[in-house]
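Please predict the structure of the following assembly.
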Amino acid sequence: MRNINTVCKRELGGFFNSPMAYIFLVIFAIVNGYFFTNTFFLFGQSDLRVLFDIVPLVYLFFIPAVSMGLIARENNLGTMETMSTMPLYSYEFVIGKFLAAFLLILLGLVATSIHLFTLISVGTNVDYGAIFSGYLGLALMGGTYAAIGTYASSVTENQVVAFIVGVFIVLVFFMLDKTLVFVPPSIAGFVQFLAVDYHLSNISRGVIDSRNLVYFFSVIGFFIFLTIQTLEMKRWK
Amino acid sequence: MIHVSDLSKNYGSVEAVKSISFDLLDGEIIGFLGANGAGKTTTLKMMTGYLVPTEGSIKVNDLDIIDDIHAIQKQIGYLPELNPLYIEMRVYEYLEFLATIRNISGRDFKDALARVVEQCGLRGVVHKTISDCSKGYKQRIGLAAAMIHDPKILILDEPVTGLDPNQIVEIRELIKTLGKEKLVFMSSHILQEIEATVDRIIIINQGEIVANGTSDELMSSSKGNVLLHMDVKGATKDSVEHIQAKVPAVKFVSIDETDGLQSLQFEYGKDKDPREDLFKYAIKNKWTILKMNPHTTNLEDIFRNLTMEDNTDA
């Protein structure tokens, strides 16, 4: 636990010591803010639906960008060798890295809560339950994409490659339930269950079902496991 | 102590290290010498747990590299070949980060930091960002990082490569001081770098160990003879070629004549020095000696011989 914390703190420090974190947070806030306020006053509805629709799209490119350097950069600089020869387990290293990216994403989400204050000050009959579950869904989706991005970052030493691989895998999960019409009905249910949007929309509707939670936690766990295996494999190559 | 036995590493079909064995004792400074690509770095990477051996075993103080990897890594300080550093961090932040993972914090960290700053001469740069430091300082930061937990064993992969001559001397002195109480295993592809610092030399070539011993042992085991260059005046070809009849220890090699000056080359075994007899022989034959210059086989020649011979039959 202590080592996970140490790795995570160093990585977060790295984010904030470079322009990375600031660029991410500012652009994330601007893009979301633009799309939200564009239609918020037009529709006159007291909810954050527009925000909850736009964030998953912004995630598609932002999260792979946040996570692309996590491990690829260590591979490239050779610091991976320093870390691998320290008394540190691979899982501690990987989870620490993942958590750093996840925390930065959560911080981005916190920044969007300014729209919540707009809503509270001008709206009526605000459904706080829906807002809570909407944020919960976005947080879980962010975690899932961060885990995918961490894995993409571990397979290469080139951050651009890590970004592209990350966007690709994220897109597959994102697009799955939009391809359902092309899928044989016998496996359509299964494909839908794999789609991240399906679970997000369930949670966003205010239904916090254990199946959806299990889905998010399993995908996160799966990609963290894959990342650990990728690092271990390198020692045996 | 470190006990390496029958250690091999294959990268696909390439055999980088072929069944090597050696022992390293506490308090010894050992140089690991070989040409580029001989298998030095691969061996060090296996000894530090970065790579898993294909075959063979490494035991560090009776701990096994596969089963007790973390226990071993706690005892080892490692400076990798390219000295990778988190260059965006400040020097003390970086050292604190490594110390925290090694479970050194608070008062203990302050003591450890003071110790490595002193030993590695980092006083002026502790608060600097690593990327702003010069190459020499970066190398010392790498050393400090390897020593922050005061390990009993230091494994240094080409610690002085890329440094200027003054820095090389400084790092060498530091390694010598450290070697008084630690086991230091350092690799290099340049002999002079190592010769002055180490107690023992292990030479690796094409993945195999071709020599292991002190520099004196390596010198005495070499079959090399001494080649004697002489410049003389007044020597006749006949008197030179038949020298062995009068001075049996020397063997005639060649004679060159330019402008009344003869350049002669003789060979003799290094256990018997025939120069006195040669001098008397020269006087008897009315040669005027202008120069007499014995060229002893040195470590450099031994290294070249050992690493060339194998190259030719590969």
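The interface with chain B takes residues 2-3, 6-7, 10, 13-14, 17-18, 77-82, 84-89, 235-237 of chain A (CB under 8 Å). The two ends of chain A are 29 Å apart (CA to CA).
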